[in-house]
Amino acid sequence: MTSDDSASLVPPVRPTVRRYWNDILSIYYANTPIWRVLKSFGLLFIGFFCWSAGALLLSYRPDWTFLYYVMAYGFVLILWGPLTHFVILPIAIRLRRSAEHPITRTFANKASKINLTVFFTIVIILGTAPISPMLLDFGTIFEDGERQPDVNPDVDCVVLDDLVQCSLSNEAGIDHIVVTSGDRTLERIDEPPYTVEFAVGDLEEVVGQKQFVLELRDENGETIRRYTRSLSMLDEA
Fold first, then answer.
1. Which keywords label this protein (predicted)?
2. Which residues contact 180 (CB under 8 A, 6 or more apart)?
3. What is the rounded distance in angstroms from the CA atom of residue 57 to the CA atom of residue 80?
4. I need a labelling partner for 174 at 20 to 30 A (CA). Which of 9, 96, 103, 136 fits?
5. What is the pLDDT of residue 67?
C-alpha cells in the first residue's frame, strides 16, 4: 500500500465539519415565512425552558449562582429569537443584495456577528446584575406527597435608612422564618407577627449584588416557601 493509498483512508475531517457548519448556516439564514416561524418558536421554547428551569433549580440551590446566567440566556432568548429571525436577518439579507454604500454593505455582512455579540453582552450583564422581571420564585415544595398551596403570602420588603424590613400578608401555616445571605443566617423569627428587620451592611454579595433569602418554615423545620430578593429590587420607605 502506497502513502497515497494510506492518506485516502483518512476521513476528511475538515470538509465534513465545514459541510455541517454550512448546513447550520443555511438553516440560520433560511428566510422563508415558514422557516422564520419554526426557528422563532423553537427559540421561544428553548428560552422559556432555560429561564424557568434555572429559576426552579435556583429556588432549591441559591448558592448555584451560575444559574443566573442560564436564566438570563433564556429570558433574553424569548425576545431576541423572534426579533432576530423576523426583523434583523431579513433586513441584513436585503441589504446584502441591494446595499451600494461600503459602510452599509460591511454592516450587512457583519450583521450576524454584531447581533450575536449584542445578545451575549446582554446575557452577561443580566446574569451578573439580575433584574426583577427575570427572577422567578419557585418556593413551594411538597410534604408527604401533598402540595401546600394555602401557604403563599405576599412578602413586602423595603429599605428604611440602613435597615431592610419585610412583612407578610398572611401568617397562616408558618411556624418560623429564617433569613440568610450567602452562608450566613441573619435573622430567625419564631413568633408572630413575622416582621423581619436586619441591617443592609449584613448582606453579602452574590453575583455582584447584595441578596438575601427569606424562608418560611413549618414546625418540623421544613421550608414551605422561599423568596430570593436583591437589594436593588427593594423600594425605599
1. Membrane, Transmembrane, Transmembrane helix
2. 186, 212, 213, 215
3. 24
4. 136
5. 86
